[in-house]
Amino acid sequence: MKLIMENWKRFLSEERKPRTKLEDLGLYVESSQTEIDIWLTVWNDGFGRPQVIGMLGTMEPIDQPCIPPTHEVGLVAVDEQFEGTGIGTHLYEVAAYFMEKTLDGGITSDHSTSTTIPAAGIWKKLQNRLGYIKRKTDPGEEQYNDEGEITGGNDTFDYNNSTPDPNDDCPDVHSGKPATDHSLAIPPGRESIIGALVVKQHHTFQNHVEFTTLEYGISREDLMRELKTEANRLFNTRYQPGKTGVHGEEK
Predict the structure, then answer these.
(1) Contact indicator for 144, 166 with CB cutoff of 8 Å
(2) Strands 70-78 and 106-108, sheet pairing
(3) pLDDT tier for residue 20 given thresholds of 50, 70 and 90
(4) Torsional sign, CA 111, 112, 117, 122
(5) How many independent structural domains does the chain possess?
(6) Which pTM was predicted?
(7) Considering the chain, what percentage of its residues have pLDDT values greater than 90?
(8) Is 132 helix (H, G, I), strand (E, B) or coil?
(9) By CB atoms within 10 Å of each CB, which of 12, 24, 36, 192 scores lowest?
(10) Has residue 20 been placed in a domain?
(11) pLDDT tens digit string along 101-113?
(12) What is the SS3 assignment for 21-48?
């Protein structure tokens, strides 16, 4: 009876989730050498404009190279209605895709503060199920220690100067444990899949923005400010490490 009730609750929960496919979402990406901001949106008839349902922000690690070029995923949130629909994983993959395309680099978990338990599950999925590649430091031609050993080619972060290679140095987290000790690159098979979705989702977002500005007379600048505020509000609402738990501090 208990199993039947649990299955029934799961069925009701799944039925309540919006049936939104990844290919139907809108995508906005703003990237630079030091950070990437990503929003995923759906069209909201009630608002008459796109609505942010997922956001992710990256940044360069503070003071340490962490197998460069690498960005930490520092901010990530998904609207509660869309949890369990694959949007969270897709945000990480879009970040990895743009790091590969723009900087020939990878992504890693938050090494400035901590990673929540749900986010740690996504990092595990990227490595174990989706085959993300552990990037290595460049051995170079002159990177040798005093014993003549090559100091490059490492794929694991060094938190305590245990290796002579400076490029694998990375700051340790302040709370819990790092969700990954690697700079992860998107594998070729995933790159083609995510690349196709990125193109389609970017088109969708642009179409929604154009329709909103023409139909409702709002300027693009004002709409983008509203969406940015919405993305920040989503993170501030959804980021609750005290409730979700911190990876490495599981009780």
Answers:
(1) no
(2) parallel
(3) confident
(4) negative
(5) 1
(6) 0.89
(7) 79
(8) coil
(9) 12
(10) no
(11) 999 999 999 998 9
(12) CHHHCEEEEEECCCEEEEEEEEEECCCC
